[in-house]
Design brief:
Number of strands of chain B: 4
Strand order of the largest sheet of chain B: 1-2-3
Number of helices of chain B: 0
Largest interface: A-B, 65 and 55 residues
Shape of chain A: elongated
Oligomer: heterodimer
Number of domains of chain A: 2
Order of helices and strands of chain B: EEEE
Number of strands of chain A: 6
Order of helices and strands of chain A: EHEHEEEEHH
Largest sheet of chain B: 3 strands, antiparallel
Shape of chain B: globular
Chain lengths: 136, 82
């Protein structure tokens, strides 16, 4: 987990000391908080808002080979759903471990039906997966 | 994690790590007012950035995390929610 904003690392420290340390049980933030002064990295990732001078809420899942597998972009006033990030991460890990033999359908969470794509599954998803599984 | 940045009055800044395989690419594929969006299945652009972690000022290089899954999370500013 790496977080990043255009704030300096000094401001990151102030935020941890003054506020975040009071919000998390670990008393500190358990991952590096990166500084993207000028939005150099945000520009490469397409999340830098030049008018506002900030990186908007972009979240990228990068696999162990350094390949981008997913991203999400949200305008600043709305916060993200952290369980959805964890769900996607678990689903991508399952798919990667399956080396192309497994797929995580809509609404998949650990314990729910995993699909095994192939000629036999075409037209037969309804036999192994029901729409209610798309919802919690 | 790489060496610690020198902490002085100068504000440390992030730097783009050049991809040796694509040396002919312009360093920053962004023109003014135009957004370049990342493609799924593309290599995540590498970088080194100053960071605050475990009460220390340090540097983080994305490619040092190869072999692990990485969640890279941008947000508009400290003292806001995520």
């Amino acid at each position: 987990m790496l977080s990043m904003s255009v704030d300096s690392m000094f401001v990151h420290k102030m935020w941890v000391d003054k506020e975040l340390s009071k919000m998390v049980t670990a008393k500190t933030v358990p991952f590096p908080m990166l500084s993207d002064g000028g939005g150099t990295i945000g520009k490469m990732y397409g999340v830098y808002d030049q008018d506002e001078g900030v990186d908007i809420r972009g979240r990228f899942l990068i696999d162990p080979d350094g390949i981008v597998q997913a991203y999400e972009m949200v305008a600043p006033p709305v916060g993200r759903n952290i369980p959805e990030t964890l769900r996607q991460l678990q689903a991508f890990q399952l798919v990667r471990e399956g080396k192309g033999t497994k797929a995580a359908p809509s609404g998949w969470r650990p314990g729910k039906t995993v699909l095994e794509p192939g000629p036999d599954l075409v037209g037969n998803v309804w036999k192994v997966w029901t729409v209610d599984q798309a919802f919690d | 994690m790489a060496e610690k940045p020198a902490v002085g009055c100068k504000r440390p800044s992030a730097k783009v790590e050049k991809n040796p395989e694509k040396a002919q690419q312009p360093e920053t594929p962004v023109t003014k007012g135009e957004h370049h969006m990342i493609q799924i299945g593309q290599k995540a652009p590498d970088f080194t950035a100053p960071a605050y972690f475990n009460n220390e000022f340090t540097e983080v290089k994305l490619s040092d995390h190869l072999g692990k899954w990485v969640v890279l999370c941008f947000y508009p500013g400290d003292f806001t929610f995520v």
